[in-house]
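Translate sequence into structure tokens.
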Amino acid sequence: MNLRIGIDNCKPGWEIILKQIGVSYTLFSLSDKILPEEFSVIIITESHTLEENNEIRKFLNAGGAVLFSDDSISNISSCRTKKVHYLCSQEKTPFSEVGLVDIFSTIDISTSKEIDQVDKGLKIFSMEPGINLVLPYDINELILNTASRRKKFYADRKELPSEIISQVSKGKLRKIVALSLEYLHQKRDLPFVHLWHQPFVDKNIFIFRLDTDFCSQKDADEMYKICRKNNISATWFLDTDSDNKLKNYASMEDQELAIHCDKHFVYNNFEDNYDNIQKANNKLKSCGINAIGFAAPFGDWNPSLDKALQKLDFKYSSEFALNYDDLPFFPNYNNKFSDVLQIPIHPISLGRLHRSHFTEDEMLQYFLGIIKEKAISGDPVIIYHHPHHKHFDIFDKIFQYVNHENFENMSMKDFSKWWKQRYLLQPVFKYSDKRISTEYNSDNTFIKISTEESYIITKKGDINIDKINLKFHSNPTIQKDLQRARKFHWRDILYDIETKKGKKSFR
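Result follows.
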């Protein structure tokens, strides 16, 4: 049978998520007969006619599995609408690893008594008849949301670090969808198969980003020395306005050089953004530096900036006001996908930890905690630093840790090239008599096979699931007091005022 996802309307937000996860998927029509042998799961995002709903019921009654979301909710269950800022998963559910999810949106709370709460904290439920899950939020709308706000990040201490980042936890929503698809496959006693989102089978990647605004040559040299000592190829985003040291950067070995800015500001119009970036680009080219990547000042993003980056033929950018702690994707606005790949990072820098009065050891433990957490979940590790904040010994220790733990260091350029190749793949997965057959045009992209108890990351091919060594799923720990990261604190206002003043001084 086909291990293929069917979707009734592949809206841009859903296309982003399905491409990130790497499933085999296609559009389908409820005017045609849909069979459980052709689709392992179907996703319903629209409200449908009575006749079309009957086809969905037939699919469920025949043993198929359905994921409901977006506009389909009001058509399948009596609901009340509620404004929600964030959700938090429960312990011991299929979604317990998700943790805190910011949505700042309305959700549809079912008022029916004939539902099964799969995760009460995330409001995920199922209902009779058949195998199904209901995600009572508009996934497409949330993924396309471009608003930003200050949010705090959890740490095992009283005062928490914060940053202005994407309002919606898009990476968490992607995990909810992936876990939903995995859950529904397992309920059908089917393996869940998708393209792996890292270029290696048994290693996590580690990417180190550096923003050089206000960086002295001495600090740049010290940071470079520690990178070289630990064989770390970092990606340096260069500030060309306050930096007359470009030839020094150009002489660095085994480092990627990219653009941060000329003026340390993101404008709300195409012309100013284009001129600012082009000026920086011309300065780099005069020193023999050909940059393909960009990271905006303050992590800001808007469509005008993206249009300027496309016009200047940049290959990727990285702005945590658009997304953070997630997999790469192509932004979509005005119903059109950008050509510039977005690479999300973990948005808390050492400077933000210092502002929240972390000691040096607490800074080190914070970053090591993020690295370990991402290693367990299988996500790429991408952290960043401003060399003018110094504390170089902390990163020396971090680099020693990632080398000892066998991480694979990559530049953002190399990761973006690999991801774009993965993005173009159209995998076909089939399952019969405990055998999985895989078909897609790549030898350097692996697959992940998950069963209810275990998983494996392996090469493509004809795979007998009974003859492979599966690893048991890990159980990430979610802190019981996680929600205190969303409690208001007066420092949040102070930091917002500081940021506004800082931006105003750069215009």
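Note: The mean pLDDT is 93.
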